[in-house]
Amino acid sequence: VDVQWVSASEDLNTIAENCREAIVIITGETVFDIDLARKCPNLKLVQRLGAGTDAFPIDELAKMNVMVANNDGGNSVAVAEHAIALMVGTYRKLRLQIESVVDRKWQGDVRRYWGPSAHELSGKTVGIVGAGNIGCQVAQRLQGWGCTLVYHDIIEISKERAARLNVEKLQLDELLSISDVATLHVPHTKYTHHMISERELGLMKSDAILINTGRGPVVDEEALIKSLQTGVIAGAGLDVLEKEPPLIDNLLLDMANVMVTPHLAGMSPEATYKSLVFGLSNAVRVLDGHEPKSVIL
Hints:
Layout: H1 12-19, E1 24-27, H2 34-38, E2 45-48, H3 58-63, E3 67-69, H4 76-91, H5 94-102, E4 125-129, H6 133-141, E5 148-152, H7 159-165, E6 167-169, H8 172-178, E7 181-184, H9 198-203, E8 209-212, H10 221-230, E9 235-238, E10 258-260, H11 269-287
Parallel strand pairs: 1-2, 2-3, 4-5, 4-7, 5-6, 7-8, 8-9, 9-10
Helix pairs in contact: 4-6
């Protein structure tokens, strides 16, 4: 097998020259240029090392008989752990506590981040929107936290798995209305664009928090900012934003009740290794004449 390592920082023509004979392209990039596929007549599979493929021209590639696969949950543990970290960090006001210490104020104005508004995660209802690889990893890792777990998905997980994860399926509106924490783990599609907007945020409890480690455009950011400013919900933990990198005047970056991380939830040495192993094994399947796994339809 001839393997070509190609830097994504090169111009399209240089990349295409190196990939011209490729049967499989494995990429860690979040965007794929359809013109690259057009310059690769032997291409059968574009293998994404991450989970999201919303910026891939899947329909156009399908017309060229080119399949697209993601990492089959290779980074699901990393994202799930990050989501739970955002839950705890947002609930416990860790941003304000850390800023107080960095500013050499120690406890500072303790009432800003302690007392009635700094909740424990234990005993809370966590609503998981999207019960795929990552959503189920979140549920699995919250076993023993004393949480009530509910989920919403267009697909129902098996009764055996639901029992093992101690999770109940609800419609989205009901999930949002009863959850103390709503955590989003759905891809960005035309069906999920702004699925959390002003109406949905208005269904949530005033002391609830929203966690998003999926894709920024799943949430209507303008509506979220308004809801956070007016107390419709209590806080948010976000690893993704509608525009990345965010504009310097994005109000979410300065809100005391918001924790923002720079879209790195899925990054860890372990996740990278698992994703690479899966991507390479999928390439071998195609080269051997078999169907690849985790194909995006």
